[in-house]
Amino acid sequence: MRSHTRVLVGTTTTVLTFGLAACGGAGTTTNQPADGASVAAAVDVAQCATEGTVIDVAFNAVATESMAAAVKAMEAKYPGLTFDAEPAASTSYDDLTQQIVADIAVGNRPDVIMTGLGQMQFWVDTYNPVPFDSSVLADTYQKQFLGAGTARDGVTYVAPAQISAPVMVVNLDLLDESDAGTAEDIKTYDDLLRVAEKVTAHTGSPSVSIAPTGLPEWFAQGLIQASGGTFVDSDGAAAFGDATGIDALRISSDLGSNGWEAGIPDATQAMDIFTSGTLPISMVTTSNIAAISQGIGDKFDWMPIKLPTVEGDQSRALPAGGNGTWSSRRIRAAQRSATNSSARSSHRRVCCRRQAPSAATSPWTPLLATNCWHPIRRHRR
C-alpha cells in the first residue's frame, strides 16, 4: 500500500463496562428516570444468577463486529446469559437516538444503549443513566478519554469505545501534478486556498469538500475550536458569533466564492469520491481512515492532515467524536421482597461480575459489570 496514513487521533478500542441498574434490596429506590422506572439499590452480586436471562442492547452498524465479539465472550463466560443484540442499519447516531426514544415511548426500553458522544448529554438530561464505574477499566485504557464521556454535572456516564476527530485527507498525487506543494505545508486557511486554486487550475474541477450534511455541526465545531474559538458555552448556548468564530467559519464561503468548493452534499459521499481519486481534498473523521485506506489501496498516494486554522496554530484540542454505551435504569419490580418476588417467576436476578479485559477481548467486553440487574417482564413488539 502506498498511502501515507498518519493517524492523528485514532480509534480508541476500550473495554466498556455496562453497569446495569442494580437488582435491589426490599423497598430501596433511588431517583426516577424520565419514563417512570424506579431504581433499586445494589445487593451482593453473589445473590444474582444469569440462567435464562436476556439482555437487550440497542446499537447501530458502527459497532456490528465489536458487539458480536463482546456478546460471544460474555455468553461464554456466563452460561445461560443471552443477548438480544441486532444492530440498527443506519450508522447515524441521531437516527439511533430517535429510534430508541420511540421504543421507550411504547414501553420497550433497552438495557444497554449505544450513544454518540454528541448525544450523551441528552440521555443524561432525560433518562437518568447509571454513572460509569471506572474501576473496572483495564490498566491499558487511556483514561484521558473519559472526559468525553463526562456530562455537565461532572459525572462520567460513558467510557468511550471509539474516539475520533475531524481532519482533512489530501490526494498527494494531485498536489504533485498541480505543483501545489506538500500536504504538510497546509497549516493556515490561506495555505488551503492557495493549494485549492492551483489544483483546480490543473484539474478544471473544484478541489475541496467540507460537506454541509452528515457531520456539519461537528465539522464546524472542529474548525472553530482549531482556530481558538468556542462552539457552545458551558450553559449549552451558541458561542461562535464572535470575531474568532466568524473568522473560523469563513473558509467555506471563501472556497465557494472562488469556485474551489466541490459542493458535495454529504460527508459520506465526499469520502467515497475522495477514495475514487477525483477529489483532491476532503474533510473527514479519523474513524474513516481505515475505510479510506482500504478503498484506495494502491491507486494513489494520500495522507490525513490536521485541520488548517486561521493563523496556523494546529496545537489546539479538537472536539471528540465517537461513541460508547450507557446503562439503562429500567427496574420497576426490583424492590419486591424475597417473599413477593417468588410470585413473579418471570423476574430473575441477573449478575455479570466485574471483569478485567484481556488483550483478546472486544472493546465492548464486558457488556455488564458493576451491579446486579433485575429485569422487568418483556413487552416486545
TrEMBL record:
Keywords: Signal. Residues 1-21 form the signal peptide. It holds the Pfam family SBP_bac_8. Residues 335-356 are annotated as: Disordered. PROSITE patterns: PROKAR_LIPOPROTEIN. InterPro entries: Bact_solute-bd_prot1, SBP. This is Extracellular solute-binding protein.
